[in-house]
Fold:
Amino acid sequence: DGGITQSPKYLFRKEGQNVTLSCEQNLNHDAMYWYRQDPGQGLRLIYYSQIVNDFQKGDIAEGYSVSREKKESFPLTVTSAQKNPTAFYLCASSVGTASGNTIYFGEGSWLTVV
Amino acid sequence: AQTVTQSQPEMSVQEAETVTLSCTYDTSESNYYLFWYKQPPSRQMILVIRQEAYKQQNATENRFSVNFQKAAKSFSLKISDSQLGDTAMYFCAFMRGYKLSFGAGTTVTVRA
Structure:
């Protein structure tokens, strides 16, 4: 089945560690996104990528990094510079970044700092 | 910057009845898109309905319909014949270009 797969579902990080969240899609979408969701809030855009080897910062990129070496994959690294990383992270994709293209989401990953 | 406001943090509805969720947005653009997403307890974001601002006709998807008032910048969602599986958080979202801006969400609980 076509879709967006995120792993792991749950991740615990010690303070000072970097962690990487995986996102893979088999929808043949050009554009991919990472969003962060905090309790009781909507989603905020961290990074997006329109095409392989290109990505742009979103609204809250500080403390995060991404790569886009393959069309199917868009991993997110939460670095130790991210002051408050505990949140729910959603990966998404769309056909392209032109206005109106519906954005589809993965099932999300919970990150907790312990 | 676009802002999206959902003024109802929580709504409760009896099974088989109708509930309407409100959403207002602020933009100076004339061409944009609006969405409603559903987030059930599993936390996956699921597209419910999509509206193009240049279309006068309100979008409908089975039991879900919208009331799009462009001049008033209002985009409400009506859920008819509510089912227990409709229990979820519902997010209104505005899209211009690549970016989706979300409201804070409305939690809908359907009572048996």
